[in-house]
Amino acid sequence: MRVAFVASEAFPFAKVGGLADVIGSLPQALQKQGLEPTIFLPWYWGIQGYYVGEAWFSFEGRREQMGIGHAEHNGVRYVLVGLGDFARDKPYGYPDDFRRFVRFALATAHLLGDFDIVHAHDWQAALLPLLRNLGWFKARTIYTIHNLAYQGVWGSQDFYAWTGLPGETYYGAGLEHHGSVNLMKAGIVNADAVTTVSPRYAWEITTPEGGEGLDGVLRAHQWKLRGILNGLDTHYWNPATDPYLQHHYDASDLSGKAQNRALLLAELALEDRPTLGVVSRFAQQKGIDLIADAVDGLMGLGINLVVLGSGDPNLERTFAWMAAHLKGRLAYVQGYNEALAHRIYAGSDGFLMPSRFEPCGLAQLIAMRYGTPPIVRAVGGLLDTVKHWETGFMFDALDAGGILHGVREFLKHPDRESVARKAMQQDFSWDKPAREYLALYRQLLGMA
Ligand code: ADP
């Protein structure tokens, strides 16, 4: 069975969030199940690959060339799709993102002739199931929603001018949504199977509250929708071997964790108080604004906060300001910092994640793996992965009061170390989810 993944991020080549962790680790787990998936990724600036040739595709009515590169990581084969507008220093955040990824999908479709399964991820690859239905390639298609909030929406005039696709696909193949082209919708409508990254989120997105305007579409296709919980790369995220940590530890002996904690507090000049970590994109989804609202209350509870992240500039300014005024008690580091993220996961006493919605969430899994009980809002994948009072703490209310309630529960627990140990002992590996994906591939190929 020949399986292709098509995605916009893969750790360590390009990472913005959890999508990169998934694409960087699930294929290795599938290899253990006997598959050899190939990952198709845009050839971003800075990715070291071997140039192996070029291929042609059509865009804006012209024949265009793409460069093709090969790369390998942990024994997994990557095909790098070289298009001029990906030679930029970050994957997204440009006004022409929609156009760039439509080009990526059209170009990649020409390279998929040899595959039995094409597994497309998020809106950037969502056009592929439709192209398959138009006969561009033959594989069975799976579309995985990692985050329904980003749908790939654009005006239809540009879309058809760029792609040259037949106009009847607008209504007939599910591209149209509220008067625009919506790639996420087309992925859902056209794929043979649709998955998302936790069972709870698979249900939430079929409701008006969680559906981001696509709940009706998802309900109509619920028969082919299911949730498969994400795993973690448990070799990479391992406090017993993590090269970013000075002191290693496991569930049988947490003394190394205490040493990492002391180093983290010293590094960030924090007083010795219960310390909660936050490692996150600063996006509306993550409820970082609610943490800002809760800071007074948290200080009142005698808590330190260590916050690493960037995104919304207003929130960045707010946290920089609070850190300046709460020296010794609140540390804020702006930006993306892999090494510091590891030190925070290992050195904090608890991990705060008050998401408004959460498809799966990896940060809370990493925190548990590092013996740092997460304090999370009871939503989406957080609800599927954290056990209240056993491996972490949960709260419901989407406001500062909710966060403070969760933190009080955390402080109240008589034996936080047992919670940490139990969290560390959970199975977060990809073994089970990889078997579920394999079973789905086999089912689609009539091999079940
Ligand atoms: P999302 O994909 O919505 O951003 P997840 O919890 O699924 O959220 O995955 C987030 C991933 O990105 C985790 O691996 C987390 O450690 C990492 N991450 C987020 N922000 C930063 C940052 N500022 N520096 C380093 N790693 C980060």
Summarize the structure.
Helices cover 37% and strands 21% of the residues. It is α/β, with parallel strands linked by helices.
Q: How would you describe this protein?
A:
Helix 1 packs across helix 17 and helix 10 (288-300) crosses helix 15. By secondary structure, this protein is an alpha/beta fold. It has helices at residues 18-32, 97-109, 128-133, 156-163, 169-172, 183-190, 199-204, 215-220, 255-267, 288-300, 313-325, 338-347, 363-369, 380-385, 400-412, 416-424, 431-444; strands spanning 3-6, 38-42, 50-59, 62-73, 76-82, 117-121, 140-145, 153-154, 176-177, 180-182, 193-196, 225-227, 275-282, 304-311, 330-334, 350-353, 374-377, 393-395. Strand 4 (62-73) and strand 5 form a beta hairpin. The longest helix is centred in the first third of the chain and has 15 residues, at 18-32. It has 17 helices and 18 strands. Strands 3-4-5-2-1-6-7-11-12 form a nine-stranded mixed sheet, sandwiched between helices. The protein has a six-stranded parallel sheet with strand order 15-14-13-16-17-18, sandwiched between helices. The chain has a three-stranded antiparallel sheet with strand order 8-10-9. The protein is 37% helix and 21% strand. It is globular. It starts with a strand and ends with a helix.
